Amino acid sequence: MMFLVRPVLTEPLARAVAAVAGLVGKVTGTFTPFFKYGILFVQSDVGAITLQIDFECSGIIEIMAFLSLLVFFRVYTVAERVIVAICGVLYIMLANALRIIIICEMIHFGGLDLYYLSHALVGRLVFYGLSVLLYFYVFTKPQIIRMRLGKFSSVNTTTTIRTTHALTLFNSFWFFIFFLFSCSTSNSPNGSGSSELTKFLTAAIF
């Protein structure tokens, strides 16, 4: 399914993220957005750099992973899943825009030497943390609440704690995998990382 939505949604998502992040750039004057092309132009004291929001930076991978898990998550009703899906997609887009803003601001104030640090580490860690937070409130916490609606006993309490730990570890594991593969993709000299990342996530999600 990723191969079907990638050519359709990548460019619109890249433009949307560039437009949202560009609002901060226009207000602060630290970088200039060209959202029609998914490009951000960042100036610093030692030079300038053009950042293009591509497939990996558009957030489509994280959005598809979130929606795929949500479809098969039976805690919510169908109507609830639709609402949560819309809110979750918007949240991921805003979190991704925040990541882009952090990258641009670090480059503007710290120079071009901070590109790798801001892109491959700081920005991704912020996005990773916000994504885990989303997964906790969408998947882990509702599961705990639904389980606690039954009879209270020591057995149920123990089961709830174990399930909480399992769900939290599961959510953290997958986003940690996304983080590692994203870092390896950004460091790929010939762009082969993107292909490997797509194959892995397609197999893992679907």
Task: Give your account of this protein's structure.
- With 206 residues, the chain is mostly helical.
- The protein contains 6 helices and 3 strands, in the order H-E-E-E-H-H-H-H-H.
- It has helices at residues 2-28, 60-71, 78-110, 115-148, 154-186, 192-205, and strands at residues 31-34, 39-44, 47-52.
- Helix 3 packs antiparallel against helix 4 (115-148) and helix 4 packs antiparallel against helix 5 (154-186).
- It is elongated and about 55 Å long.
- The relative contact order is 0.12.
Please state the CA-atom Rg, rounded to the nearest Å.
19 Å
Separate helix tally: 6
Helicity, in percent? Answer: over 70%
Low-confidence stretches: 151-155, 185-206
Terminal-residue CA separation: 8 Å
How are the strands of the largest sheet arranged? 1-2-3
What proportion strand? 5-15%
Quick rundown:
This protein has six helices and three strands. It has about 210 residues and is mainly alpha-helical.
Topology summary:
Blueprint: H1 2-28, E1 31-34, E2 39-44, E3 47-52, H2 60-71, H3 78-110, H4 115-148, H5 154-186, H6 192-205
Helix pairs in contact: 1-3, 2-3, 3-4, 4-5, 5-6
Looking at this protein, list some descriptive labels.
elongated; mainly alpha; three-stranded antiparallel sheet; 206 residues
